[in-house]
Amino acid sequence: MGDWLAAVLLGIIEGITEFLPISSTGHLLIAERWLGVRSDLFNIAIQAGAILAVVAIYRRRLLELGRSFLSPRGGIASGHPPAANAVDAPLAQPPRDYAWKLLAAFGVTAILGVLVKLRGFELPTEIAPIAWALVIGGLWMLVAEYFAARRAATVGERAAITWRVAVPVGIAQVIAGVFPGTSRSGASIFVALLAGTTQRAAATEFAFLVGIPTMFAATAYEGAAVLREHGTGGEDWSLLAIAFVTSAITAFVAVKWLLRYIQTHRFTLFAIYRIVLGCMLLLWLAR
What we know:
With 287 residues, the protein is an all-alpha fold. 73% of the residues lie in helices and 0% in strands. The protein has one domain (3-71, 92-286).
């Protein structure tokens, strides 16, 4: 297989899986078994493309949150929850208050992430733990969605992000980063649903928004480390550019589709997909 075709396929895989609750790291590690292992700089490039797509989708929301710190009253909440298919719908709480919750979740992730790095933790690259994480994560999603639905029926629809939601979401992002196959977006969404935000759209939006600074920080840290240790010698920049653009376009389409999909559907489809894929991998390993 040509290198350019492998770059396109890996960019597509990253774009689809980064923000869907099915684990991008797990899928990329599996794909590299057949498409060939890529450099750390290549993986950083396709991740950056996916982040850029989400920034483009939420650009107005990000501007609103940034401007809230310049407003004497921190912005005024409309009282309406965010619509699942409209990222520019009014927030369910004052923008500055929402922004503080985002910063808190990111702060928790950053502190715990640094502690994990200092302990020298390395991501497993074997397929077996990834397969188990896919299966266990899928089962957990089914259970979590069941209890989240029961809670929503009991307390009603709640779209506001509280401190009880922000801090656990920050912790969930670190746990997902430690175990490939878990899914950062999936862990964040379901923790938010179980911790107090009963609306799927609101939980998804918070997970995506807090993922932006988290992924930017992780990408910058990893990129600086790679450049410091290995430089850019031997890199094919045309392949990096192809993969970056492919990942960005694919992620943009995937996130837009997901925001429409969850308006009328639960996450059950993704849970079933994870379980089926994980079981297939375990059977393949057994044979």
